[in-house]
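## tool: complex_structure
## caller: assistant
## args:
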Amino acid sequence: MLKKILLIPFIYLLVSFTGGTANADFKVSNGNIFFKSDAILELIKAQSSGLKGIIVVEKKQFAFIVSIKSFKGFNSPLQLEHFNENYMESNKYPTASFEGKIIEDLDLTKDGVYMVRSKGNLTIHGVAQERIIKSEIIVKNTAISFTSNFTVLLSDHNIPIPKVVHQKLASEIKVDITADLVTQ
Amino acid sequence: MLLLKKITAFLLVSVLLQKSVAQLPGYRSFALLENNQPFKINTLLKTADGFIYAGTTNGLYTFDGKQFNKINFLKREARDTVTAVFQDNTKQLWIGFKSGKIAKKINDRLQYFLPEEGTPKVAITAFLQDKQNNIWFSTNGEGIYYFSNKHMYLINEAEGLSDTYVHALTLAPNGDVLAATDQGINICKISGSKKTITVIGPHNGLPDYYVTAIIPAGNNSFWIGLQEKGYCLYDHTTKQISIPAVANAWPYGQVNALLATPTNLWIATSENSLLKLSAANQNVTPLFIASPDKNNIENLLADNEGNIWMTTPTELICTSGEKLNLLPLYDKATYETVHTILSDYENNIWVGTDGGLIKYTISGNKTVSRNYRLKELTAKTDITGLYQDLYHNIWISSMGEGVFVLDPVTGRYRNLSENPLLKKASILSITGSGHTICAGGLEGVATIFELADVNRTIDAKYKFINYNNIPNIGNNYIHTVYKDKAGSIWFGTDGKGITVLQNGHFLHYDRHTGLKDDHVYSFTEDKKGRIWFNTKDAGIYSFDGRLFKNYNTANGISDLQITSLKTDKLGNIIIVNEKGIDILDPEHETISYINNTQGIGEINTGTESVTTDSSGNILLSTIHGILVFSPVYAAVTQPKTIITSVQLFLQPINKDNDHHFQYDQNGFTFKFTGLYYTNPSEVHYQYKLDGLDSTWTDTKDQSIPFPNLSPGNYTFHVRSSLNENFINANEATYSFTISSAFWKRWWFILLCIITGATTLFIYMKWRENNITKMQQLQQEKIQFQFEVLRNQVNPHFLFNSFNTLISTIEENPKNAIGYVEQLSEFFRNIVNYRDKDIICLEEEIGLLNTYFYLQQKRYGDHLKLTIQISEDAKKQWFIPPLTLQLLLENAIKHNAVSKETKLDIQVFTQPGNRLLIRNNLNPKLTQQAGTGMGLQNIINRYNILSKEPVGIHKDNDYFTVILPALKQQ
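## result:
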């Protein structure tokens, strides 16, 4: 898994570049992603605890990544199979990622609760989309935890919905993320 | 407390006088006050309707020319500083706040707009809608955002934006968005998800990196406002910057805002107030120089009427913009001697004063004046008229000295002596067109000069015709002589009406031909060739060759003391009076006004003190100098009527979408305004509600309630005018329908009628049935009574009873008393019950027992009666009287009762509320003859009283009668 992350050049760059100022960087120790497709005929839920990522405090930059195959849940094993093979094509596009920069000026070394927006590239199904995502960050005792929720339009990421499942799969997927980060 | 904080707007100053080349004649200023402290207007917007919105530190306001009205948040307690306001092409209003939040105006209320991406944390500075209808907004520190395909995107340094502090946005014809930033102009180009930013900065020739304003200048060019270096022009096609000469050494400080009107560029500065850059001569004219509190202008706006609006930190100011210009050429003392003015071909202004002429030459910001003295004229000789002929020579008419011609180049002049009639004559007016010059005066002087090429110099003799002793005029004063475009010559007299020389014939019009006034002062002609003239007391007339049409105060003319008439470059008739001018649109017959509201007044009342310059502007001599009126093409000159709000029970509704209401949604309030910023207090209103009253009602109120409207179709009409004349007034309407209550709809009424009729029918049937039943019952009862009595008075019964009694007396006299008592009880009960339809089962059983007692005395143990009925049933059940008695009697009658053949009678109940009476069968060999009516009668009575029939069963052993239980009704 770690190898896969390192394959993402940006993160590799971040990790190597900020090696000297290790104190100021936070790494995900516990990250969860939930998603929900609330269609007319079916509610599909899945979650993954495989969120990895890093925040570089000084530059307000960050990168998060999750393996598509780490998602569990679904209403049936067949659904999971469809998710991986038909929609996400997880063999071809094994990860989803969001990397970018926090818009607001803030000091993540100071304790507090911050509502921030970050601008970055959300890559799902191999298609990168620029997004602004709102998060609540809590900094306490040199640890960070945050929650974000946003929606993903399947059409933004070239994920086709076959006509047959039109009423079973929402065109907008709701995503919730919670993560705890600690200094390296 | 809230009431105390009530926000008010009021007029602060009216007229301002400055000594500069050209100025605004006056302005009106308005302040938004809270606790008597003005608060700041941060931004201005004009909506598609022409309404002005002000974004302030205290929220969003509309301004109708008289007062500010706050647009509240849906959550009333919300407060926010507005920093940007925008209306998109669906008329949706967007409001940006200092807090970075964004709101939309929905049903007269502000509601925060909450995109998933959140909103900025820094002030919103501007909005824009691009060619794909995406909404953009810029911020003070986060860059530029835009919405596209359900998402919000950000352009900042990451894309190459030179600075995230963005002050203004504008759209280029090719769809590029141009942003004014602290670091130059940024050109934003979006294609798909690709954002390309190009920076135009000092390296492109931009004189100042700090760009404060950017507005379109036409031809894919943009005016750029700069922090230090004034302004410049950016050509988006060539990406070239051109710097005007004046900006090379810009003395006026920071440019805050720019506004382009057809003939001028208006520049708002921080330190030097408002500047006007004339497109014609590239001259920058500072305005408001003498007002230190108006040096910092932050926003500019042009309304639809040609007024220019601006804001200072404490005020909203309305100026007449391009419409009015004051040339303060002379002071009050000179003004009093000026009787006539002229604007020559070089736009020099000539004024005729006592004893001579003054010529004012305006060049750049300087004015040069030159005096021309005419030695023949003394200080007491009035110059009555000035006219410049086609050879540029100036014609001067005088009181008592005839006519002079002056060569403006050399200053030479001569008194016209070739016409003896004009010698020492008193000339009242001198007008002309083309080669013709007309002079009119006292004692019937009316002369037409026809000029030829020889008259280039003033020395050659002029050809002329004198029209003295014109029929009907004689030697009366001729105020004015006018030659129209068709060649007819009009003579206006003082008291003798009008005479026209048309094709060699004199035509005369006066009181006798329908004119209300014979004193005619000046003529003009409109674009359609109609002749207009003003009279002493009866207003003005138009004449189309056949009919005279009069216009007076009823048509909206503000003052009948009319000095003169002129036609402006747009074809409007300019009616000049001492206090201002009325502008009459001859096509729509509407009149608008310019008066002291615009800061003008004390206009010279001389007929010839009004003139038209070579570009068609109207020049007037006023106490403050020469006032130039330049009508603005396509400007709105009449109030625009807008229904600002429709309220249902005082709650605003969506007036664009809501038109259908329930029967109980019937209390409406209409709020409206006739937008006319030029003179808002002069707006009159008329309204009507079609469906209720189809006559117009005059009102000054701007809110009309209609409580309790009946169901129906309605259209609310409101129109506004600047006077009592509502012909061609702009009208606004709102149509709506109130549905009838469902109980008033046809289907419901029909349903009711059917139901009612059916009910009535059923009731009548039922009643009929009842009556029949009652009658039957009555009949049966009588028959039964008869039967019973017949039976009981049956000699057999009596005989038997008496025999029993005799034997009882013999055997046991004591018992005999009891027997007689029982017998008497039995007859008493029969008498008691015979009238009743039903009696309680208990009573019947009592009767049965009495009867049984009597019979048992006779039959002894051979007769047996068993009654098995619960006490409840006895009390609750009912029975037609004597039913059981009759059945018992029948049993005895039809059966042998002896030692061998005992008769056992049982009375008991059965589930299903049935009362049974049965006896074992022991039929007599010889049946006693009976009428057989008793049992039948019981059956009949039960048929009437109960739904269930009486059951009669006879088998080998038993005879059973089943009686349905009756309940008390």
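## assistant note: Chain B touches chain A at residues 116-118, 120-121, 142, 149-154, 156, 158, 193 (CB under 8 Å). The longest strand of chain B covers residues 712-721. Handing back to user.
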